[in-house]
Structures are given as structure tokens and as C-alpha cells.
Amino acid sequence: MSLDVHAIREQFPILQQTAHGKPLVYLDNAATTQKPVAVIDAVDNYYRTQNSNVHRGAHYLGDLATAALEDARLSVARFLNAEREEVIWTKGTTESLNLVAHSFGGSQLKAGDEVLVSTLEHHANIVPWQQVCERTGATLKVIPLAADGSLNLSDIDNLLTGNTKILSIAHASNALGTLNPVAELITKARKVGAYVVLDGAQAVSHFSVDVKALDCDFYAFSGHKIFGPTGIGVLYGKKDLLNAMPPYQTGGEMIETVSFEKSTWNRLPYKFEAGTPHIAGAVGLGAALEWLMAQDREAIWEHEKALLAYATEKAKAFPGLRIIGDAEHKVGVLSFLIDNTHPSDVGTLLDQQGVAVRTGHHCTMPLMAALQIPGTVRASFAPYNTHADVDALFAGLEKIIKFL
Fold it and tell me: Are 96 and 225 in contact (CB under 8 A)?
């Protein structure tokens, strides 16, 4: 079944406008996705008719807000095939990974233990582990890169050993689009007794994710990369692990009792939700997931793969263009450089033609160092993108080459 892209696009008001007098072509979806009317209306309705603090308000609006927040949590649980108590609200993937690193990692790691990440990781899945390793005496190890931008797993059995306590890896690369073989890596991690953390920020919008089928221990993603609001994210964790972990932040809803002698913590999921949550953000994220689950996910995945294949074909035929990261399995990301141009110049000149892309190191400086490049131009696709958007990108690049 093919995707009705026109019907999808009509649900995203922002795509109907112009940029610098040109029709807006939005190809920066790996940075943030646009929002459908269903999400905009859900957030608007929350503030118009439900706004209150949650859980302890003994009044009508408090009950409405609490129900809206917890209904959104149930939407996340259905989306991931998780249990309600395993869904923790955070500010986004970055906070989710910090929570796991500092709470779980900080309580589990000791000198001699190892944490394994990959060269493809976003800074948010490197720096927290560096900090925890420095504090505990554990060692951070890295899976190297293959020439095509996939992971070089030829030495994985020597990297993933009995000393490996935690494997923390991106489900998909934000910079190159590489789709990592996480099922294979989880199987290998289980054999050596390692726990598995997955950064799902670049995966969940593209295809269905079942955390029980994957058997990962933790899974993190951000609302704004899956058609929801900014400032809201999710950490999934297995219930027994979450119960055993110490709090990450303290105060507010995560409290059960407080005295000057001792404090005790609330039950899951509230144990990790200190302070007033981003209620409107959670409501918007719940609406985004309900919207997405109502779509044909397989059709979306096939549409985005077709867009990437079309863009890749045009890129390979474009004089002086070098694709950065041409792995066999990718999500909808085309990262590239053009001879004798700087990525930021290309991005600025594309913007003048109404085409929005991302340029720079994409918060993956170790990856760029491994590739020996300063950064890339990155075009990234969503269900509302079309072949005409790809054509506009390459028409813009042709004008830039002539101009420069």
C-alpha cells in the first residue's frame, strides 16, 4: 500500500508557508520534525481547558490534567509495547541517557568494568558515560567505523567481553542515517552478561519499535523528533532495573516521605519524575504517537526508503558530490559534501532558495574526526516529504555550484 503523501502534508500547517519567498522545502527532520494539527490541537486544548498541576490537586482541573498526563503515558506504553510503570517522562533523549548513565551506570560500574559505545554516537551517548567512567574507574571502549559508515563488527567479540557491563548504542545514526544491527548486538551482549541501552531518537519516527521483542534494558527517545513538542522525552526501562536504581533528581513528585532524618521515594514511574512534569509536552507527545499509530507505519517506512534511494541516485550522479555514509541499511538521511565548498555555505545558500537542511558536525565530533572531515550537509526525510522536495534540493545545489 502506497502512502498518500498529499493527505499527510495537509495535516502539517507549517509546510504550507514560504521561506524567503520560495515554497518551504523542509529537509531537517533529523533535527526536529514538524507537528500535525492533531498535536497542535491537543496542546492548545490542554492549556485552554485542562491546565493544572497534576497528581495532588483536589479539584476538577487537577483531575483533568492528571488524566491527560497518564493517558499520554499509556500511549507511549502502547507505542513501545511496554508497561505503564516502565515509561519515565524526561526532557528528551539527552536527559534520558544522562539518567541511565548516572543512576544505573553510577550504581553498577566499578574499576575494571567497561562501557561499550560506537563511533557513530551522538555526544549525548558519549559524554555521560565518560563522566561516569571517570567517577567509577570504569573504561569507555568504542566500536570502530567501517568505510561505508556502518559499524565495523569484525572485532566485536574482543570488544564485547565479560568485562563489558553496559553496551550503549544508537538504534540509528543522526549524522549518517546508518541503521545499526541492534538485535544482533543485544544477542551478543546477553551472552557476556552486559546490559543494553538504546538511543532511539532517530529510529522511532521511521518504523515500529517493540522493546520487549528487542529485549533492550533501556530505550530513549525525544518527542520533537517524532512529531511531538520540544522539551519532552521518554526513558523506557525494565521495571526491575528501575526499581533497583537510585533517584536521578529529587523533590516534588518523586517523594514518598521526607523528614530531616530520612526521605523515601515514590513508586514507579514517579520515582524518576522530580518536580512538575512538562504536562502539555506529554499531552502533545501522546497525541503525536496516537496520530502516528493511526498511520500505515509500513507504508511510511517504504516511502522514506524510496525517497532516500531517489536522493542517493541523484547524489551519485551530481558532479563533485561525495556521500558521507553509504551503509546498506539506513533511515532517511543523506549526508554529503561538495568539492570546494563549505557545508555552512551550502546550507545558507539552500536556505535562500527555501530548502532547509542541517550543516555542521551534528553533535558527532568523534565521528567527524574518524571520517577526517569538519562536518557535512545533511538532508533528512519524513513522511510528508516528496520526490519534488528532493528535486528542489538538487536544483538548489546546481544553482549553488554555478554561483560558487
Answer: no
Range of the domain at 353: 5-30+296-403
Alpha carbons within 13 A on the beta-carbon side of 187: 5
Of 65, 80, 394, the C-alpha closest to 215 is 80
Q: Are residues 306 and 275 part of one domain?
A: no
The pTM of the full predicted model, rounded to 2 decimals, is 0.97
Is 242 found in the same domain as 316?
no
Residue 355: strand pairing partners: 25
Among the options 38, 40, 192, 363, which is catalytic?
363
pLDDT tens, residue by residue, 308-331: 999 999 999 999 999 999 999 999
- Which residue in this structure is represented by grid cell 541499511? 329
Reduced to 3 states (helix: H, G, I; strand: E, B; else coil), residue 230 is coil
Same domain for 306 and 206, yes or no, is no
Percent of the chain with pLDDT over 90: 97
Active site residue 216: no
CA distance 279 to 191: 40
Tens digits of residue pLDDT in 108-132:
999 999 999 999 999 999 999 999 9
Q: Which one, of 172, 35, 5, 123, lies nearest residue 366 by Cα?
A: 123
Residue 45 is inside which H or E element, if any? helix 37-49
What letter would DSSP give residue 193? Answer: T
